[in-house]
């Protein structure tokens, strides 16, 4: 960040979820007054009282530090009065068909008054063509309400850092004051700025997530072949990742990707292609590989335990990844229901996601600590690589169990340490003394 000014343009942020709150706090930290709007009255009341509704490292502190520049309301009035740029960060969840549900986006567009001095800046992930149809709606109002696509690339768990140090900022617009105003807002971050047209900006977001998801499904398939052939996917990824055309990131094999973005955005791009008459074959495979990957753990458990009926299985970690309480599309959701379907009794522990998980997972026992989840279990499945699981006293854990099996769904625990402690240790794509899957 090169400079922070207290004299920067005020902005509006519509939708105060993961993206909206981080965007609001980030721009407040850069010196803007930020007028936040959400339809969730309880959330707004909490934010006004200083309660941050999500668990994201550094966010509560940033909001507290810039409290005087952050304004929260369920009403658009103050945002429209004070700000020209209105950032939209409402949810775009998948519909049954896999297309993005744009009802919240349409509600926001419908609430905008005719105006020559405002612009909507779309942070929400939307299908290519959304901006064009919104621009058409604004044109029909006969006023010059502007539209800018500015897709968000933050990662939950490091969202504040990602806002302050983005790899790039993509701004798609039709070439007038609004795109320049967005660029000026981001200028203090000294990030590469990609100025482009609206459709290309929309596609950058979808293509980026689809590429990352493809990389994960690719290494997961390599892991599955490693299991059949005796190679070690961790060694393979190390060797591949040093090639700078490939790079080491997103080469960690595991039990599949989840979260609120990858599954939905990959499906949305596949649907978008299909709706436009193109069959995106590769993405079908990426999605299918990911679904099957979540279930491979079941076969690993059965290899050692036989039938799972009546077996006690401890899941360590529930959130879709560490450092977040987000449970959307988490692998633990599929796993816990598959295990119960196979007759197992499931106990679970997550350092921060329990409250969210209770809304989505039924029939399991929530333990207050990892040690309590594993005591008496026939097997442990490590689902989310929370750092605290590396600190687990493995010898004490195995002593407290009824069985000795540890299935490491994230290749997170040191195999030698686990085996030395007395565990039968199974990982993803790593050699097992007990033979292939
Ligand atoms: P979220 O569900 O956490 O938050 C959405 C918020 O919008 C909620 O607080 C909801 O009450 C509010 N809202 C819904 N309709 C509204 C309306 N008409 N007016 C005002 N507020 C309204 O969602 P999120 O995870 O922050 O994602 C938002 C968008 O950003 C999505 O399109 C998502 O794909 C995209 N995105 C998310 C991430 C991520 O990591 N979460 C990263 C990049 C992009």
Describe the protein in words:
- By secondary structure, the chain is of the alpha/beta class.
- The protein contains 17 helices and 14 strands.
- Strands 3-2-1-4-5-6 form a 6-stranded parallel β-sheet, sandwiched between helices. It has a 6-stranded parallel β-sheet with strand order 11-10-9-12-13-14, sandwiched between helices.
- The longest helix has 32 residues, at 198-229.
- The radius of gyration is 23 Å and the shape is globular.
- The structure holds nicotinamide-adenine-dinucleotide.
- Nicotinamide-adenine-dinucleotide is lined by residues 14-20, 37-40, 43, 89-92, 104, 107-108, 123-125, 152, 154, 156, 260-261.
Look at the structure and give the mean pLDDT. 95
Q: Ions, cofactors, ligands: which are bound? A: nicotinamide-adenine-dinucleotide
Structural class: alpha/beta
Tell the overall outline: globular
This entry's quaternary arrangement is single chain
